[in-house]
Amino acid sequence: MLLKLRLLAIPLMVGMANPLIRSQATIFKESNLATTAVQDWRDQVTPVSVTSHCFWFVSEHLPDYQIGLKSDGPELFMSRTTNETFKIRPPLNDKYGFISFESCFSPGKYLRHKDNTIKLEAKEGTSSFKEDATWKVLPGLIGDDTYTFESANSPNMILRHHKTDLGLDSKKKQDMFKKDASFVLKKAKEADPKCQWVLSENVPGYHIGTDTSDWNAFIVNDSKQTYRVGTRFFGNDTAYVSLESCLHRGKFLRHKNSFIYLDAKEDSEQFKKDATWKIASGFIGDNTVSIESANLPSRVIRHWAQYLILDAETEQSTWPKQASFKLIEAIPGIPRASALYKRDVCHKIQSVNLPSYKVAVHDTANHVYIMEKLLTTFKFSQPLNGKSGMISFELCDIPGYYLYQKGDYVAVAAYKDKANDDKFKKSASWNPMPGLAGGNSLTFQSGLDPNSYIRHLENALRVNELADDDAFGQDASFVLKEAAEG
Question: For 115-119, 385-389, 415-419, which range has the lowest pLDDT when averaged over its residues?
Answer without folding.
Answer: 385-389
